[in-house]
Every structure is written in C-alpha cells, then in structure tokens.
Specification:
The chain is α/β, with parallel strands linked by helices. It contains 12 helices and 14 strands. It binds adenosine-5'-diphosphate (ADP) and magnesium ion. The site of magnesium ion has 5 residues, from α1.
Length: 388
C-alpha cells in the first residue's frame, strides 16, 4: 500500500498544496518551519484519522480558516486504489470519506492503512515514563485489531464515568455505591479484554523486536519486553498462575478483586488506581532494565528497533505493508548508520517511506547511499506555488 497523491487545503502551513509521491523512498527537504512535518502529519491523518503531533484537531486548521481538508489516493498492488478524504471543521467536527462514502466509525477505517512514525521523540518510549510505552503499545494494537480498538474505547469511556462519579460524590450513599458497582463492572468487562490482548500479543512483538535488533546489526543485544498488569499480578503470560495461562474470566475475576481491594483508596483519591491505564511495559536488554542501564546511543537504537518491530507486527496482522514516516529521524545518526537504515528500507522492507530532514549532511548521506524515488525540496515547491 502506498500513497500516490496528497492534496491539502488550509492545513497548517499549507494553504492549497498538491503533491505526488513515489512508491518507495520520498525525501522531503527544506529549511525548518517550511512544512515538512505538516506533510507527514497529513498522511498520518488519512491513515488513522488523527495527528501524531497534537491531540487537538483545531490547532491544525490554518490560521484564518474554519476548516482543513486533506485528500489522498492510496494504491494497493498497483491495481486497486482508494481515495480518502478527511475534513475537520470548527463547526461540524471531523468527516472521513473513503471513495466518497462517509465512514461513520473510525473502527471501520483504522488498520486498513497501517502507518509507523519514527522521530527523535521516540527516545521517550524507552527513556520516559510508562504512559509513553502504553501509548506505543496501544497504537500498534489498535491498528492491528478493530476489537482491541473498540475494547479500549469502551474501557476509557467506563473509566471516565467511574472517575467522574468518584469526583462528584459528596457522601457514600447506597445510590452512589450501586452506581459505582455498575461502572466497576463495565471497567472490568472491557479492561480485562484489553489486558488479555496485550498479554497475548507481547510474545509476538518480542519475537519481532529480536529480529529488528538483528536487522539493525545488534544481534548480541537480547531484548525483552514484559507486560506487567497490576490486577493480574505478574510480568509474563503464563508465569502469573504457576505456569498456566489465565483465561479471560480469570483476568476479569482478578481485576474485579483488585478494584474492590483498592476501593477505599480510590474513594479517598477520587480516581481509579488499578487497570490497563496504569499497567507497565518494561524493557530489558540482556536481562537488565533498559531505563537504568542503557547509554543514549542504546536508547536510540532500541527505540528504532521498537518501531521496526511495530512495522513487522503491523505488516503481519494488517496484511499490508505499513507506510513509514521518518520525521527528522536520521538527524542524530552518523553516515554509516544512515546507510544501514536506507539499505534496510530500500532493499529489505521495500515499503513506501517518507524521510524529512533540514540537515545537509543527512541529505548527502541519503542521496549517496540510497536511490530516493522522489526528492522534494519544499522551499522550492512552496516558493514556486506562491509565485503563480
Ligand atoms: N494552524 C496553523 N496555521 C498556520 N501555520 C501553521 C499552523 N500550524 C503550524 N503552522 C506553521 O507550520 C510551520 C511548521 O511546519 P513544520 O511542518 O513543523 O515545519 P518543518 O519543515 O520544520 O517540519 C510553522 O511555520 C508554523 O508556524
Ligand atoms: Mg519538522
């Protein structure tokens, strides 16, 4: 799957902008602030109906306008093509159309056009707090499974309701307790499914992580990701119940018990303290926690490997090659490393990739080592458009 054409109107720095892409490596250059990341963000919007830059869609509307429109054509196997249009208006919100038909639920679209973003911020996945790792995991599972996406949405809704009940309560009356019980059941029902899927998929992701480090030339680093769910009790699938795997019903039971146990604490703090929203994804290299022991360089390589593992995982589960968005991702790498990544993308993954950079050294390395399908210099293109 690749995107062949993109049209933007009133999207961030771009007023009216049209561009056609190559099937493989697209190099996007130009000075800082010209709108390179904006282009990647627009592609991401078409794939997942949301930005990777900001959670607030309104910030992406060009100053002085009331709505933005992004249109793209996606081609699969050279024959089938799909036109996707995403409009966001201050008045009416978001409208997604595929082949001119309005898509009512995002679950019907997410996963059809898988995408993986690489950026220097990925450092946060390995070096930052648990929330960034949960977001990483959720993003890949949501793209891979509509059921997971729906379970996560339902869980978040139930959690929000339970938390607002805890915040609003002035006294713990019988009515309050029965409402709390009702929302606890909902939280457990959907939350247990989220925990279950995370536990199931972690071993598959681990095997791709292993392959990815090998692909990056670090076969002697043995990586491991462990998922620790507080309600369920332990790190690995299988070890928490004496070598036996837990059924969904058992996860539900344990989660419910954990919620009951945390009851008075939750009421005092006025929020739900246990569940998938607080679980941890721990990263290890050669048996040692990455967070405490890794050098900066190891963090960067590991973050790259995680994203590469995400690519392989999504390719397997979505059955189509994800598009890679590499936003300034090579800017801290030496020419040899860049050559390695270009070789990997061009000759091994053979997928569509977008590489942005403002760094002349990086451009030189990419052009030297690779054969970019297309090279766009945005400063020239935007300058030319303005002159018309
Ligand atoms: N809503 C908006 N309206 C107009 N311009 C915007 C908006 N949001 C961002 N920009 C502009 O977009 C530019 C940033 O584009 P970006 O793609 O991040 O640049 P870069 O080429 O450095 O990646 C900035 O000049 C910023 O002022
Ligand atoms: Mg940028």
């Amino acid at each position: 799957m690749y995107i062949s054409d993109l049209t933007l109107s009133a999207f961030r720095a771009h007023d009216d902008f049209k561009i056609s892409f190559g099937e493989r490596i697209n190099l996007i250059t130009g000075p800082n602030g010209i709108g390179k990341t904006n282009l990647l963000e627009a592609i991401h919007y078409l794939c997942l109906t949301k930005s990777f830059v900001s959670a607030r869609d309104a910030t992406a509307i060009r100053e002085g306008s009331d709505e933005f429109v992004i249109r793209g054509r996606f081609v699969d196997g050279g024959t089938q093509s799909r036109s996707v249009s995403l409009q966001y208006s201050k008045a009416t919100g978001k409208t997604l159309q595929v082949n001119k038909a309005t898509v009512e639920r995002v679950t019907g679209h997410v996963g059809l056009l898988p995408v993986v973003v690489f950026s220097p911020d990925d450092y946060g996945i390995t070096a930052g707090g648990p929330e960034e790792r949960r977001r990483f995991l959720d993003n890949m599972l949501c793209q891979a499974s509509k059921t997971y996406l729906a379970d996560l949405q339902n869980f978040r809704h139930a959690l929000k309701q339970r938390n607002s009940l805890l915040v609003q309560a002035t006294s713990h009356t019988a009515t309050f307790r029965s409402q709390l019980d009702a929302w606890s059941s909902e939280v457990v029902r959907h939350g247990a499914r989220v925990i279950n899927r995370r536990r199931t998929d972690i071993s598959l992701i681990n095997s791709y992580l292993h392959d990815s480090l090998e692909q990056l030339g670090l076969a002697n680093e043995v990586p491991e990701m462990r998922y620790r769910s507080v309600p369920v009790g332990d790190v690995d699938r299988g070890t928490s119940s004496g070598g036996r795997d837990l059924s969904l019903e058992e996860i539900e039971e344990r989660y419910f018990e954990a919620l009951v146990e945390a009851g008075s604490n939750d009421m005092a703090r006025r929020r739900t303290s246990v569940g998938p929203h607080r679980d941890e994804l721990e990263l290890f290299v050669n048996g040692r926690p990455l967070r405490n022991y890794a050098s900066q360089g190891q963090h960067r390589t590991f973050a790259m490997a995680l994203k590469l593992a995400k690519y392989h995982y999504l390719y397997k589960l979505c059955e189509t090659k994800p598009i890679l968005l590499l936003d300034d991702a090579f800017d801290h790498l030496d020419p040899e490393r860049i050559a390695g990544y270009i070789h990997l993308i061009q000759d091994k993954l053979e997928c569509q990739a977008f590489i942005t950079t403002a760094n002349p050294g990086v451009i030189e390395s990419i052009v030297q080592w690779g054969d970019p399908n297309r090279h766009f210099n945005l400063s020239v293109m935007i300058g030319a458009l303005e002159k018309e």
